[in-house]
Design a protein that fits this description.
Blueprint (H helix, E strand, L loop, with lengths): L15 H17 L14 E2 L10 E6 L5 E5 L2 H15 L5 H8 L11 H5 L3 H10 L16 H18 L9 E6 L5 H13 L6 E2 L2 E2 L5
Parallel strand pairs: 1-6, 2-4, 4-5
Antiparallel strand pairs: 2-3
Helix pairs in contact: 2-3, 2-6, 6-7
């Protein structure tokens, strides 16, 4: 009995729909991606074996470079805005609406509050040059008492601003996370001064940001 040969047919799959989905996903990720904020100074952070992930939002960061200069920033713009109002009132410093708007967009800074208005008047290139060559950092004075410690005030008042906004229902927050991103080559006394600043304001919980170290038991 002769075998019945099944005719071969070419297979064709229309990939148009798949390409459309791929481009839609690509567009979605491009539009929703959160770019890494520009840091005022480069910090070579030390390594550790801790695997705790640093929160990506609702965080206040103190950057400390190898010279011991402290730069401070808060990620939430509403918190920045409220924080600035508190600090201007406390230190009796005036700012124009334009300067306040510039601060709202500022990721971090490393100057005294008295010099802050002049810093905010600079363009981005001038600020970058100032940060690298002129900035002395946010003052961390633990010798004359906590009343003269601007960094301690910024951190402490940032927590208060965050809580005020959360209580008013303007933001969702379980409490502002405080982090220290210090250069691995900075002198210990610079780190110690910052920790003492936190303790002066009864801030006992904060995160030290490091890179993951290869650990072989």
């Amino acid at each position: 009995m002769p075998k019945i040969k099944v005719p071969r047919k070419s297979t064709f799959v229309d990939m148009t729909a798949m390409c459309d989905v791929a481009f839609l996903l690509l567009t979605f990720f491009m539009l929703t991606a959160k770019f890494r904020p520009q840091e005022a100074v480069m910090v070579d952070i030390p390594a550790s074996i801790s695997k705790i992930k640093v929160p990506e939002s609702n965080i206040a960061l103190v950057h400390v470079d190898r010279k011991g200069r402290a730069f401070f920033g808060v990620d939430n713009q509403q918190t920045r805005e409220r924080l600035l109002e508190i600090m201007l009132a406390k230190y009796q410093v005036g700012m124009t609406p334009e300067q306040k708007q510039q601060f709202k967009l500022l990721e971090n800074f490393g100057t005294s509050i008295k010099e802050l208005p002049k810093y905010l008047n600079m363009d981005s290139d001038a600020r970058n040059k100032y940060d690298k060559e002129v900035a002395l950092g946010v003052p961390v004075d633990t010798t004359n008492g906590s009343a003269h410690n601007e960094l301690a005030d910024w951190v402490h008042q940032a927590r208060i601003a965050d809580q005020q906004l959360a209580n008013a229902g303007l933001i969702t927050s379980d409490g502002l996370i405080i982090g220290i991103k210090g250069d691995g080559n900075m002198e210990y006394q610079n780190y110690d001064a910052i920790v003492k600043s936190f303790i002066d304001r009864e801030i006992y919980k904060f995160n030290l940001i490091t890179t993951l170290k290869n650990f072989q038991p």
